[in-house]
Design brief:
The protein is mainly beta. The protein has one domain. The protein contains 2 helices and 8 strands; from the N terminus they run H-E-E-E-E-E-E-E-H-E. The strands form 2 sheets. A 5-stranded mixed β-barrel has the order 4-5-6-8-7. The two termini are about 25 Å apart. The structure holds zinc ion. Zinc ion binds near residues 38, 40, 51 and 54.
Length: about 140
């Protein structure tokens, strides 16, 4: 059975995060906010830059690459819809653009801090409601 993103719990969409969710849903791309005042990237989506408090955040396309900072391989306690996929890997990822994000990494192999990851292909992105990575 192939699970589609629509079969999984959905992220709560708001005017603030809608561009990020649309980029993922429509193109399998990662959209990040960038501050026009300090030029740093921002994740998660928000109305004000957490670095300099400017309100001038614009949307940009991220490279979709990064490195694992830390991770958990989750074997038990998953909602029923995820149990067939167990164990799943959730990782803190340092994106190439400088932001940190928590995301799922699709792998049954070795995982370690410092490991390079990239977004799954746009075709595979259809299976996940949020940006999802794989070993690079
Ligand atoms: Zn800023």
């Amino acid at each position: 059975m192939t699970t589609l993103a629509a079969d999984l719990p959905q992220p709560q969409e708001s005017p603030i995060n809608a561009p990020m969710l649309a980029a993922w849903r429509d193109e399998g791309a990662l959209a990040l906010q960038r501050c026009e005042a300090c030029e740093r990237t921002v994740f998660y989506p928000r109305p004000m830059c957490p670095h300099c408090h400017a309100m001038r955040l614009v949307w940009t396309r991220a490279s979709g690459t990064g490195r694992i900072v830390s991770y958990s391989r989750i074997h038990r306690g998953l909602p029923p819809v995820f149990r067939a996929d167990a164990p799943i890997v959730l990782a803190e990822i340092a994106l190439a653009e400088g932001s940190l994000m928590i995301a799922r990494v699709i792998t049954s192999g070795e995982v370690h801090a410092g490991m390079a990851v990239r977004l799954v292909s746009p075709r595979d992105a259809l299976r996940y409601p949020l940006p999802t990575f794989e070993p690079a």
